[in-house]
């Protein structure tokens, strides 16, 4: 489950693994990223089993993405009617 590439879009974080799979999770799962602009969101360091944002000194493990584990305080955005 080693990440080889990671990037963010405006709504999701994506990780490509060494075995070729790509996984994604909604950005709202990680409230600690909410204050970052597009450049900050994409300044990601690859770790052996996860990814890290030095600007906020926070990261997520690939395993937590697979298991659907959200960061504390994560709240789904309100859906417009």
Features:
81 residues, mainly beta, three-stranded antiparallel β-sheet, 6 strands
Q: What do you see in this structure?
A:
There is one protein chain. The protein has 81 residues and is mainly beta. It has a single domain, classed as Uncharacterised protein PF10387, DUF2442 (NE0471 N-terminal domain-like, 2-Layer Sandwich), CATH 3.30.2020. Helices cover 12% and strands 33% of the residues. The strands form 2 sheets. The chain has a 3-stranded antiparallel beta sheet with strand order 1-2-3. A 3-stranded antiparallel beta sheet has the order 4-5-6. Strand 1 and strand 2 form a beta hairpin. The radius of gyration is 12 Å and the shape is globular. The chain starts with a strand and ends in a 14-residue tail after the last helix. The mean pLDDT is 95.
Helicity, in percent?
Answer: 10-25%
**CATH class descriptor name:** Alpha Beta
Query: How many angstroms does the end-to-end distance come to?
Result: 38 Å
Total of DSSP H or I helical runs spanning 4+ residues: 2
- The CATH topology assignment is NE0471 N-terminal domain-like
Counted beta strands: 6
The CATH H-level homologous superfamily: Uncharacterised protein PF10387, DUF2442
Mean pLDDT: 95
Low-pLDDT segments: none
Organism: Rhizobium glycinendophyticum
Protein name: DUF2442 domain-containing protein
Pfam family, one: DUF2442
InterPro entries: DUF2442
């Amino acid at each position: 489950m080693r990440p080889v590439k990671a990037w963010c879009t405006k709504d999701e974080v994506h990780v490509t693994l060494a075995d070729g799979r790509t996984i994604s999770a909604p950005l709202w799962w990680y409230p600690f990223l909410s204050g970052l602009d597009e450049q900050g969101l994409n300044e990601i360091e690859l770790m052996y089993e996860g990814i890290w944002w030095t600007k906020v000194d926070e990261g997520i493990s690939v395993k937590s993405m697979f298991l659907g584990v959200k960061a504390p305080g994560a709240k789904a955005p309100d859906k417009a009617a």
